[in-house]
Write a structure and sequence with these properties.
With 416 residues, the protein is α/β, with parallel strands linked by helices. Helix content is 34%, strand content 18%. A hairpin with a 2-residue loop joins strand 16 and strand 17.
Length: 416
Amino acid sequence: MPITTLGEAGFDSPLSVCDSSSIFVPSEIQWPNGKPADDLMLFEKAGPRSKLLFDPARTRAAIVTCGGLCPGLNNVIRSVTRELRRSYGVTSVLGIRGGYKGLDPSRGKPPVELTDDLVEEIHKKGGTLLGTSRGPVDISIAVDFLISQKVDILFTVGGDGTQRGGHALYHEALKRGHPLAVVGIPKTIDNDVRHVSRTFGFGTAVDEAVRVIDSAHTEARSVDNGVSVVKLMGRHAGFIAAAATVASQDVNFCLVPEQPFALEGFLTALERRLEKKEHAVIVVAEGAGQDLLGKSGETDASGNPKLQDIGHFMRDAICAHFKSRGIEMTMRYFDPSYQIRGCPANTEDALLCDRLGRHAVHAAMAGRTGLVISFLNGQYVQVPIDVIAAGGKHLDLDGELWRAVLSSTGQQQMFC
């Protein structure tokens, strides 16, 4: 999968190099009848190159963070800034404030100069030093602004929409004759990015979710027929809910977007659980059961359909069911989503953020553009944005993680 390069690199790199390696995708290859699989891909390995397109002493870079909060954003900002300044000698790194809105002077705040001192302690805090927002920006206005600020490299930290926007910025700058390198760092707490094994923030989210589940379990066990419902992140993929369920081992029902379920069948299964154990813990991903709720018809600032609240729906449905049956039941409801999103990164995510940030700098300084840095099959690779944006990643209901969920919870697949 070739990566676009802005031109022939002519400046010597100060770093040891990785010029000519590729990574197979998938890492485990089965060739029926001796023929290669149709989806076999090669991605370029990330790392420093021997020649740079940009002269570090004359280069200005910028970083923008977009979309919802996610543990590790400040770690990425810090690592990108320090790699640019300390390893390559870039003297100017701008922080675009307030997401893509910061690329429109009529809407956003002026950028801030990111220095070693400014980013010194930010990795210890959640959120993003630069601020964030949802929604697009006028590409023409944004490129005008980047050219006026003499920005050569733009690092985009965000999801699919953010990366598509960055790609559009590159193409518009190209039409203007301005060699703008755009390198993305994929950010989604849900871990649902195609051709990315693990996105930053996911590990922290699972850690924090398990802590909440532990509290939910304690609450449920402390009363007769106690039921705790925990709603977790996961609009289109149930990776957080599934991983937290397996890590906790105290969850009795796990509901995810990939697996439709019958409400009556679920309520019957829950009633049987209470008859046997007198308590239950239910984890539900925010995108689960949307077919039971109907579409709201509304969209958020990024154009994504707004989901109906499955957590409140399940809470109310459970309460109504047991009331109609004349069975005493005590409900506890937990929604820690924003609490989790605002956490600082744990050790695992801090390491991942640092590597992603540094590899993004290596790619940009070599003149690569229109790509995101991915952690894939234990390696860091450069993936074209078009490939990333072609579709998301979903929990495999025949895969190891979901089998572990079924084994841990003892639940039936569809509660039929």
